Amino acid sequence: MKKIVIAFLALCLFCGCKKENETTNAVVGKWAWFKSSAWTTATPQSTGQTWELIFNRNMTCSQTGTHLPPKNGTYTVTSDSLKITFTGDSYVTRFAILPSHADTLILDAGSFVDGPVHSFVRIN
């Protein structure tokens, strides 16, 4: 009986770690901003600005472009939240990668009342 319990706990631990790695792997890559929505909609075409987020497998990230200042930092992922920590500040957001569109990343501060929703497309 003791061996069954230990085997079950080991299986649960393994499965739990795998899910987080799958979630982390889902955000790895380079993402280009294509829309922000709140009270109004902003796009690279309407603002003349660019914004890219790069998430590396080693949990480091960077922000480039002209929409926001370039920064380097780290990130952590849970099943429904993404915490981006740049030097001097951090940004915690809910995120979604649409099942039907695995190349779309949605960063959601909560709702239109709480803040904007930023949409990115995977570029590699």
Task: Give short descriptive properties of this protein.
124 residues; alpha+beta; 2 helices; 24% helix
End-to-end Cα distance, whole Å, is: 49 Å
Order of helices and strands: HEEHEEEEEEE
Low-confidence stretches: 1-20
Mean pLDDT, all residues: 76
Q: How is the biggest beta sheet arranged? A: 8 strands, antiparallel, barrel
Query: What's the helical proportion of residues?
Result: 10-25%
What spatial form do the alpha-carbon principal axes imply?
globular
3D structure, described in words:
The chain is an alpha+beta fold and 124 residues long. The protein is 24% helix and 44% strand. Strands 1-3-4-5-6-7-8-9 form an 8-stranded antiparallel barrel. A hairpin with a 6-residue loop joins strand 7 and strand 8 (104-108). The longest helix is centred in the first third of the chain and has 26 residues, at 2-27. The N and C termini lie far apart (49 Å). 15% of the residues are buried.
